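Worked problem 6 (solution included).
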Amino acid sequence: MQLGLIGLGKMGFNMRARLREGGHEVIGYDPRPEVSDVATLADLAAALSAPRVVWVMVPSGTITDQTITQLADVLGEGDLVIDGGNSRYTEDGPHAKLLADKGIAFIDAGVSGGIWGLTEGYGLMVGGADDDVARAMPIFEALRPPGPVEDGFVHVGPVGAGHFAKMVHNGVEYALMTAYAEGYEMLAAEDLVRDPQAVYQAWTNGTVVRSWLQQLLAKALKEDPGLNDISGYTEDSGEGRWTVEEAIRLRVPVPSIAASLFARFLSRQEDSPTMKAVAALRNQFGGHAVKRVSESG
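Solution. The predicted structure is:
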């Protein structure tokens, strides 16, 4: 099958390679000429045979909006656009309408797999009409992990459902990573434990907490014992926030996901104003000692 792929970053570049290994013809476009197969989006559209399928793999928000708007001008009736980036699900409806006005179909695809997807395959959560998803199935089959189709691929529902599922996936990921990280800190704090990395390595087989994330933490600790080369500053890419916001709208309690999101905010503070205020209050009401900042700072 022929596919146009827009966005050849860390994931898009590997997706192009995996699809080509699977026997598909992939024509990629990226603003960086050293990785792009064509010079412009118009050239990409011209290089594809109608009816065309184009996969968008660019950062969510403004860049995705601009890309889909440009595609509406260079593609035509009968074509199909797949947004595989981390767009918020509420953006899918407007994107689908913009394209539908030109006779262009739309699928939203949540993609998980990161830099390991090239060899391990990508977990796919897609939203769209049945006929559109069926049309794109050869692409999904090449990208997903080997094994039963339901293990690694799901047609979640109509447009928007795929990105909603991916948002919740990433919210769960936030909570899992925080739990594993807290467990590591507990092990490292206890002198009885000689090697926290060895514990996490042992957990990779036969335990109920084993997982790919847990294996990756064991790998990271082996490469950098004590994690001395890494700052604790942690960004959030949007999906964790969106999950908490949607949980509030739906009145669904997600305390673990919410706490993991706020933990990332805390990681960016060298000295927490909140905890300064707590220390001051303890001193005011109970006369508890506080640690003073030295005159030298």
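Discussion: The CA atoms of residues 124 and 153 lie 5 Å apart.
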